Amino acid sequence: MRKTELLNRKYAEPSGGIYSKVSVDFPPVFTVDGTYQSVFDVDSSGTVYLVSAILPNTNLIARVAFYRTAITSIEESFTFDENTVTQAMFGYWFTRYT
Question: Residue 57 burial (CB < 10 Å; 0-12/13-18/19+)?
Fold first, then answer.
């Protein structure tokens, strides 16, 4: 099923929007992946998701994530309120399979 078919099921009128994805990679230091989605003419339909890995492909695990929903304008994308979830994970693998 395509994304336009899903939009037509969720919203009664035909809707367009912004759907973007970004990936930045600076090996071997860090990677950042993110998405932004928003439906035109629908209030609070925007979402932002960012996830970063520091020193990927090593035994060190260091990841940070940011998720924000109910965005009405692009300026609200990185504000912290009840619609924001952040996560951090740090650790070390002693062996590759544990």
Answer: exposed
